[in-house]
Amino acid sequence: MGARAVGVPDATSHQDIRTAVRDLCGRFPPEYFRRIDHARAYPEEFLEALTKAGWLAALIPEEYGGTGLTLTEASVILEEINRSGANSGACHGQMYNMGTLVRHGSEAQKRAYLPKIASGELRLQAMGVTEPTAGTDTTKITTTAVRKGDRYIVNGQKVWTSRVQHSDLMILLARTTPVSEARKKSDGLSILLVDLRTAIDHGITGRPIPNMVNHETNELFFDDLEIPAANLIGEEGKGFRHLLDGLNAERALIAAECVGDGYWFIDKVTKYASERIVFDRPIGQNQGVQFPIAKAYANTRAADLMRYEACAMYDARRPCGAEANMALMLAAAASWEAANACLQFHGGFGFASEYDVERKFRETRLYQVAPLSTNLILSYIAEHVLGLPRSF
Question: Are residues 227 and 275 in the same domain?
């Protein structure tokens, strides 16, 4: 992919990680993921292999049994998973949720949970934040956690809570102080660690949400769920701030997944356009085919660089909200651009399951909507980076 400027990471960086992840993913051929997608199943064998190899413990410090990698290195893992033709959506929660627990959990919490998460004995794949009436206005959530003695009593509702059916633990954001009593609307929110093994059907009722992607996500209802006060992560009422560590990591990691998708589409369509003969010439000889692919490649490379900047700032513990959001927006747009070119130039074959284009097409489209709408990112940039008046 051309020469690389000294010190600037790109798709050739971190070759030891890339090679190892590619080798693991190579054990799961496209037919495996087609079968999983068709059955709307969970790639359990794939997750077990990633766990056994230690990749899902990337952001857990070595002293707690993890591999102690940086967010930059973790992002390369997810990039390579998606570039292999798989989908990191089944497992990325275990990475970005670590930002909240590792940085804000107590020593007792980290000792109790992190070694078991690292070994695969426990899974922390779920995060309950979004609510039907609040959407992306997180400060307007109405799920409450009321302290009674040594426990919190939780009531409310969450939606689009992913991987609950394949997780043992869940990060939950709830309001512990009424918004009318809080100094700022972002105050009074707290993070609790929920043990789903005992909570499901004992305070939590779940309803799966069928969707266009094979993505296990749910609506959750909380009815007097009891959570030990010892499961409070960080300081009560400061949960929104604590959550940002997880959200910034989430956005940078998903940006890396989109970069992986973008490269997968570009590799796929470049090969096809070079081999597909129509009117006695490869279709890739036509500029009408070349230019959209080349443009998608350029935009993917640019998004890749923003991903690395966001990750580097996160690893340095510098504020990176703008960079993480921009990385997500640019990478999601680039992967979708590459997806459209790939589908278009495959013609009818792009819609055939055996080519995998239609599956990856559906999967990558999600990231212009979730975890955060591109419109919200633009609003954030306008207000917090450019200093324009708040629009809502």
Answer: no
Do both 272 and 381 map to the same domain? yes
- Does 250 participate in catalysis according to the annotation? yes
pLDDT tens by residue, 225-266: 999 999 999 999 999 999 988 899 999 999 999 999 999 999
136 vs 78: CA distance, rounded Å: 25
Task: Encode pLDDT of 122-153 as tens digits.
Answer: 999 999 999 999 988 899 999 999 999 999 99
- From residue 362, how far is each of 44, 215, 237, 354, 377 by CA, in Å? 21, 11, 38, 15, 22
Summarised one tens digit per residue, pLDDT across range 150-200 is 999 999 999 999 999 999 999 999 999 999 999 999 999 999 999 999 999
Q: Which of 127, 97, 128, 129 is nearest to 113 (CA)?
A: 97
Check whether the bond before 30 is cis (ω within 30° of 0). no
Asked if 174 and 189 sit in the same domain, the reply is yes
How does residue 7 score in pLDDT terms, banded at 50, 70 and 90?
low
Active-site hit among 131, 236, 250, 257? 250
Residues 154 and 171 placed together within one structural domain of the fold? yes
The whole-angstrom separation of Cα 156 and Cα 206 is 12
Is 367 found in the same domain as 249? yes
> Which pTM does this prediction carry?
0.95
**CATH value at residue 342:** 1.20.140.10
**Domain-embedded: residue 262:** yes
End residue of a domain, out of 223, 239, 255:
239
What HEC string does 173-216 produce? EEECCCHHHCCCCCCCEEEEEEEHHHHECCCEEEEECCCCCCCC
CA separation for the pair 181, 319 (Å, rounded): 28
For residue 250, the Cα-to-chain-centroid distance in whole angstroms is: 5
Domain limit, last residue, from 219, 239, 259? 239
